[in-house]
Amino acid sequence: MITMLRIDGRLIHGQVIAGFSGRVGANMIMVINDAAAKNAFQKNLMKMAIPAGTALEVLSVEESLVKLNTDAFLQKKILVLVKSPIDLVALIEKGLVIEKVNVGGVINDGAKIKLTKEVMATEEEMVAWKKLNELGLKMELQWESNAIVTDFNNVIARS
């Protein structure tokens, strides 16, 4: 069961592990990103970063949908991490049903459009942010787990 879905350009890092993972009681972290799924070095770094007793899956968009649509993770409380809104649009277009997303620091390569101090976008990411907003997905910007939540839908609507 997905307990939280977060868009964070850094994927796994201290705030995700110390803050969000514990807050939602996650016993599994699922990173969904095609490039990360192909990068053995990055996968190994992620494995070293997660706490003992927490499972980790680093999957492509296609692999994640296959696994999420089986009974394999019914007993898991999953924190899903995607690197960009593009990944999330791909997941939703392929059938993932989600009502809310937590938005963290999203400043990926080539990003030049400043949305907030935490989020910058490329032209392609901007299209994806607007699509998520149009789909009615509730987006909450929250840099740290104890920070005030900002309505990111309003940010996108003004952009």
Overview of the structural elements:
The protein has helices spanning 14-23, 34-37, 40-49, 61-68, 85-93, 123-134, 152-158, and strands at 2-7, 28-32, 55-59, 78-82, 100-103, 113-114, 120-121, 138-141, 150-151. The chain has 159 residues and is an alpha/beta fold. It has one domain (2-158): Phosphotransferase system, sorbose subfamily IIB component (Fructose Permease), CATH 3.40.35. It has a seven-stranded mixed beta sheet with strand order 3-2-4-1-5-8-9. A two-stranded antiparallel ribbon has the order 6-7. Helix 5 (85-93) packs across helix 6. The longest helix is centred in the last third of the chain and has 12 residues, at 123-134. The protein is globular, with a radius of gyration of 15 Å. The N and C termini lie far apart (33 Å). The relative contact order is 0.19.
Concise synopsis of the structure shown:
The protein is α/β, with parallel strands linked by helices and 159 residues long. It contains 7 helices and 9 strands, in the order βαβααβαβαβββαββα.
